[in-house]
Prior knowledge:
The chain is mainly alpha-helical. The chain contains 12 helices and no strands.
Amino acid sequence: MSAPHAVSTAAPVIAPSARSGVLLSLLSALSFSTLGIWGKLASEVGLNSFTALAWRFVGVVVLLLPLTSRGLTWRARGKMAGVGVVYALATTLYFGALDRISAGTTSLLLYLAPAFVVLLGWAVLGRKPGGRQLGAVALAGAGLALVIGIPGAGDQNALGLGLAAGAGFLYALYLLASERWLLGVSPVAATAHMALVSGVWFTVLAGAEGQLSVPTTWPQWGVIGGMALVSTIVAVPALYGAIARLGAARASLLGTLEPLFTVLLAFLILDEPLRPAVLLGGLLILGGAVLAQGRRGKG
């Protein structure tokens, strides 16, 4: 231990756990960003949204649940299932918004989640945000508006706007619930139970709307496999690992890189145009993500 009077002038060093948390957040954001690409490909091969989601989560359950179910208490299973319920509801509101307003505006309102995380952490958990954290939220929000696009004249559906904002609020709850309820739980086991709840939920929804069907072609199974493996089995445990190391607020701010990654992947894979505003917005998002990694305020 250093002497009491010693004063360090060196820049703060990120702890190994925090460094690995940042890397896991980046891996999660990149993996989740492929979901939009898989969604585009799903429509091209004749898969509707609820059917694709149902098979995505069923595939994850088949792969992960047998490997992670031993030694778990019912209390732990209940907490993991509870997190899955919040995730499934947030996803349902997100797709309900997509049916009524543009994808850009839906994504922009979904990524109000970091702001909701900060506000809920303050109101419920007593974590008063510092200036650095508020600045990070502001930078990330401005960057997202440039990357995704500011809502246009066609985004006037009040129900659609409400559903998208509700999805952002529920996603914030999902992140905070993951931080508090999944403490000490294997991220892979948590992913398996989240997928179990979501798989049942989206199977019921697809059946209720008469959309449930069995994929019949290799391209359809390929899309579902990509959604299950990359966008779930890689993305979700990485997110849980990041939350365990960084907390929900910092992890959610790093997660705002996801739409930027989606735009870049769409440019590289789908030949979609890359607007100059995307580059500026990306710099603002990166600035917010970096700012968020400073020392936390008290509370």
